[in-house]
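Contributing new complexes? Match this layout with adenosine monophosphate.
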Amino acid sequence: MEVIDSPELARKYVTSLRSQGRTVGFVPTMGALHDGHLSLVEAARSCDFTVASIFVNPTQFGPNEDLETYPRTLQSDLESLEQCGVSAVFAPTAETMYPKGFSTYVSAPKIGDTLEGVCRPGHFRGVVTVVLKLFQALPVTHAYFGKKDYQQWRVIEAMTRDLSLGTEIIGCETVRESDGLAMSSRNQYLSQEERQRALLLSQSLAEVEKAYHAGERCVESLQHQMHSILTGQPVSADSHTETPLPSMGLDSVDYATIVAAQDLTPMESIDRPAVALIAGNVGTTRLIDNRELRPL
Ligand code: AMP
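Output block (do not edit by hand):
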């Protein structure tokens, strides 16, 4: 497996494969790899060659976010990628990606204006800028993104379409721990007690999905149900006999909402494919999760 740190060499590597008519699948990551990342690599292996990148992108972190403490495990990440059959890894430094005097950014598409775009101002600008730069260094045929970061996937689809990049964007299903928690590099920040409360995200999504499949289509009532579970006050038939335990909820909920799956616009009733999206804090760790709601 080749480990490349210069955009010029990365470009040569991919261009040479493309000139031989090969398809190249790409998995961009920030490292600290887990099985979620590796599932994207597995999907990318349907291409003739698979490349990955490891880069903790400073421009997508806000001033009070975890850029400094973000886990960095380069050696073991490289070993995992090699074992998974990746041909080359692009692992540039921040100085290479953002040389002195760097000042050109891509503005994020409209679909990035809501949800994460509101909670993390500038986040998607950083994401689309780095993804465009990665696509320049690695002019691949296919790129694989996790639906775990649902809005990010939609933002990148939109950017790729709007800027006519010609790369096929593939969204891959979220990989979860056996108890339902969506895998994330940030899960390692959680204490044991927080790890328990973090389950409320996947649990509330599972409840909403259950209600949806039982026939509930009213977005307001489904959202209400999600909020109740996330704040530790589940509404159940015998709830009057239970003492609510507010301390068992998340520490804050940024949003728990249901929107149209295609364009993330609000809806009152689920009359087309939808997605339930949650973001919130457990302790100081911000977690996100989501679930698509569509007929079986
Ligand atoms: P990150 O390293 O967090 O920037 O993630 C790199 C890619 O892996 C993104 O496309 C994420 O959406 C995807 N990813 C992260 N966690 C998961 C997961 N649990 N299941 C599937 N994909 C994931």
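Reviewers usually confirm one structural detail per submission. For this one: The radius of gyration is 20 Å.
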